[in-house]
Amino acid sequence: MKQDSIIKNKPLLTQSRLFLEVSGVIGKVAALEELTLAYREYIPSKDNPVFKWDETLIEAFEWERTPQGDNHWCDVCKELSNE
Predict the structure, then answer these.
(1) Which of 48, 57, 61, 77 has the largest CB neighbor count within 10 A?
(2) Contact 48, 71 (CB under 8 A)
């Protein structure tokens, strides 16, 4: 398989369900910054060993295992509920 076809078939982070949901609340730039930081610093657990980009914020990762922590993601989630 050629490298070009691999790149074409790889979904972009900015097209993921998680990014689209979070960016709808905090904006695209902030969502990219926050989710990138959370992804890079995420501490895997037995129940959630990886980020799930195609899930909702509630299901994508364990909030307390990111630098932002529970309170930050809870605030974002509350804003989602208000939409």
Answers:
(1) 61
(2) no
